[in-house]
């Protein structure tokens, strides 16, 4: 059986130089470059300038230990969030084929979204915390305020969707 390449008791991918320098630099460089390319702030077709600006920003970020520390702490959460978002998009895309009536599609999307959120809460132990908060009382004002915020957000969405349909039928 082949032995993995080990450097000082660690693999190359878990070495501090790679984790604390190369990965944060690549993440920042890629995000800044993509934002500059998409927004065309520095002009259209200016990939070299966008790359230089992204390079400078990436190097500035890794030169500060506190910024790099924040990025290192966020990377696992971001990775799990991206996987959950990808699963959600795949599940929604499977029901958005056009073969089902629109109301049924919206109901299925809502059910899938709720299921993915509950699964994430279950795997991160937030589900247990939420159930303890609900059943043991805890700080009930937090729970009640959260419910009111959700109701207000849902009402705003309904009003915006209703206004959009009213404007499209007026034309």
Would you give an account of this structure?
78% of the residues lie in helices and 2% in strands. It is mainly α and 171 residues long. The chain has a domain at 1-63. A two-stranded antiparallel sheet has the order 1-2. A hairpin with a 2-residue loop joins strand 1 and strand 2 (10-11). Helix 1 runs antiparallel to helix 2 (47-62) and helix 1 packs across helix 3. The longest helix is centred in the middle third of the chain and has 31 residues, at 65-95. The protein is extended, with a radius of gyration of 23 Å. 5% of the residues are buried.
Low-confidence stretches: none
What's the overall average pLDDT, rounded? 80
Q: Distance between the terminal alpha carbons, to the nearest Å?
A: 71 Å
Major beta-sheet overview: 2 strands, antiparallel
Helix residue percentage: over 70%
Task: Give the overall shape, derived from the CA principal axes.
Answer: extended
* Helix vs. strand class: mainly alpha
Beta content: under 5%
**What value does the Rg take, in angstroms?**
23 Å
For the secondary structure, the number of strands is 2
Strand order of the largest sheet: 1-2
Order of helices and strands: EEHHHHHH
Q: Please work out how many helical segments DSSP would assign.
A: 6
């Amino acid at each position: 059986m082949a032995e993995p390449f080990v450097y000082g008791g660690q693999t190359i991918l878990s070495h501090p130089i790679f984790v604390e320098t190369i990965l944060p630099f690549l993440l920042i460089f890629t995000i800044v470059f993509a934002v500059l390319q998409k927004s065309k702030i520095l002009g259209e077709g200016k990939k070299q300038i966008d790359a230089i600006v992204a390079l400078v920003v990436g190097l500035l970020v890794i030169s500060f230990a506190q910024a790099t520390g924040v990025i290192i702490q966020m990377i696992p959460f971001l990775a799990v969030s991206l996987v959950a978002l990808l699963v959600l998009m795949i599940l929604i895309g499977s029901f958005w084929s056009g073969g089902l009536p629109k109301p049924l599609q919206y109901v299925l999307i809502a059910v899938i979204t709720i299921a993915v959120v509950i699964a994430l809460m279950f795997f991160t132990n937030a589900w247990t915390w939420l159930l303890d908060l609900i059943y043991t009382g805890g700080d009930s004002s937090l729970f009640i305020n959260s419910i009111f915020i959700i109701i207000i957000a849902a009402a705003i969405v309904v009003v915006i969707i209703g206004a959009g349909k009213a404007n499209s039928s007026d034309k």
